[in-house]
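Shift notes (night). Ran Formate transporter FocA while the centrifuge was going.
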Amino acid sequence: MEAKDSVTLDEKCIATMKPDALSPAETEAKTEGIGVTKAGMATGKCFVSAMLAGAFIAFGGMYFCVFLGDPTIPFAAQRMVGGICFCLGLVLVLCCGAELFTGNSLMCCAKASGKIGWAGMLKNWVIVWFGNLAGALVAVALIYFAQVYAMNGGAVGQAMVSVAAGKVSPDWFTLFAKGIMCNILVCLAVWIGFAGRTVTDKVIGIILPISAFVACGFEHCVANMFFLPTGLLLNSMGIGAEGAITMGGILFNLSAATLGNIVGGVLVGMAYWYIYAKRAK
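Came back to this:
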């Protein structure tokens, strides 16, 4: 019995130490297991973990805006390098551990396999959405008191307001479509993160999909929990055009972005569940 246990343990150690990434089928199975863990997490711990994720994404948004604070940089360079700066947020989420609403849409894999119920999945989504919002607002306050907006003679603050204003101007369906596209890329990045075995795997793997969604101007509801309140706060201080951002505009954007993000994430999760979970069975 002891010999058998020793062999099993050795096999597990070898599997863990393999340098190559998990296969798509292994990643799908891991995603289901992660979904079960997330559904069973205690409410308080889930909320605090979600606050961390909201703050982490806000830090990425802050980094993005600081880079945009130099208006002399050409458009293409702004979008590409700014997108790489924003990757900071998901790197912190995946490598440090936190509950991110957009990534948690992949819990649909565990639901489709009957490992969690509707109640567990939806409860997690609601707790995490509000936790992300709380964490983002704490980050907004800290970044404001640190006067990051005053950098480069106030150009960073102008960039923050400009980014926020651009997010409340499109019509609802456009924002919804941007939300779908955003979370397709985000969940593919999370999928790569689940497949990676090392921090290096995760960091390098998420750079292209995350920088792509930022460069294309797609809508991420958690990022907007930072961009929009920051823009509203600075706009009320006289930065940017008067009335460029309103509370109504924030709710308008978040409703479209949130629903679009859910659709995009579920599309990714269900596609891989259909391909790999069914084959495994």
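The mean pLDDT is 93. Residues 38 and 124 are 7 Å apart (CA to CA).
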